[in-house]
Design brief:
136 residues, alpha/beta, Glutaredoxin, 46% helix
């Protein structure tokens, strides 16, 4: 577990952009089962989360289409919630950060850590904008 004073500013980046923090497995189940589109980001303390994933997701939300609901869990902080979210992400292996888009309770797109590492925030935003145009 990471100390809250370390992770709070990282979580706040997403909350300020409209993300709801999910802390329990029940909250995860309810959020991901909602009708419409739900974007779930597994947040992380790593450099690719700070340099590409969080800024890329935030930039993608400023475009045209966007998901109906935005939620996040924090790896190394919200342990039980992250485990439950990862069950919803199957067959993809656990990774953090990662970004999942659900439509009517079904996983329709998944961005794994290896799709984030080495890419810029702009590349992540462009990719997500294309995904939002297709599914949202």
């Amino acid at each position: 577990m990471y100390p809250p004073e370390l992770t709070a500013p990282m979580a706040a980046e997403l909350v300020a952009s409209g993300f709801e923090e999910l802390k329990t497995p029940d909250q995860v189940d309810k959020a991901l089962a909602q009708p419409g589109t739900v974007l779930c980001m597994v947040n992380s303390v790593c450099g690719c989360a700070a340099g590409a994933a969080r800024p890329g997701v935030r930039a993608a939300l400023g475009g045209g289409k966007r998901p109906n609901k935005l939620v996040t869990v924090f790896a190394g902080v919200d342990t039980d919630a992250v485990l439950r979210a990862r069950q919803h992400f199957l067959p993809y292996p656990p990774s953090s950060p990662c970004i999942a888009l659900f439509k009517d309770g079904k996983l329709v797109h998944f961005v794994e850590r290896h799709h984030i590492e080495g890419r810029s925030a702009g590349m992540i935003a462009e990719h997500l904008s294309t995904v939002f145009d297709e599914f949202c």
